[in-house]
Amino acid sequence: MSVVEGGYLASAVFRADCAEIVRALDAAQAVRRFEPGEARGAVERCARAARAAGVLPEKLIIELKTLMRSVALPEMRTWYRSVLTDRVIVWAIEAFYGIEDPDVAERERSSDESR
Q1: Are 43 and 11 in contact (CB under 8 A)?
Q2: For residue 102, with 0-12 CB atoms within 10 Å meaning exposed, 13-18 middle and 19 or more buried, which class applies?
Q3: I need a surface site. Which of 46, 64, 76, 114 has the fewest CB within 10 A?
Q4: How many domains does the chain have?
Q5: Number of helices (H) and strands (E), helices first, in the chain?
């Protein structure tokens, strides 16, 4: 493991990013309605910070899967948690590589035009 990877993945910043992801997912679960905005934003911030710190994408994915398996939504059925885990991983990959989700981009353009 490189010093850069160990630094971010072992840092208080990474733990805070993970805590924010868990908090957003728990909040969505509490109201029984999953709106991805807040959770997705937390995942994206974490992925961008990881990339900026030089973390390998596969290391980030392993950490996020561990987070989802061990901490996030422990009361959820395994199937639902695996669906959310997949979604979190996709968001992380998109943010890590700067891939724009066409649906999100279109909604943001529509919102900007209506202002």
Answers
A1: no
A2: exposed
A3: 114
A4: 1
A5: 6, 0
Which has more pLDDT, 1 or 72?
72
Residue with token string 């209506």: 114
Question: Who contacts 47 (Cβ-Cβ below 8 Å, separation ≥6)?
Answer: 60, 91, 92, 93, 94, 95, 96
Could you tell me what percent of the chain has a pLDDT over 90? 46
Cβ-based neighbours of 56, under 8 Å, separated by 6 or more = 5
**Does position 60 have pLDDT exceeding 90, yes or no?**
yes
User: Hey, what are 15's tokens?
Assistant: 């733990």
Structure tokens at 29: 């679960």
CB 27 within 8 A of CB 72: no
Most confident of 5-9, 12-16, 77-81: 12-16
Q: What is the pLDDT of residue 33?
A: 66
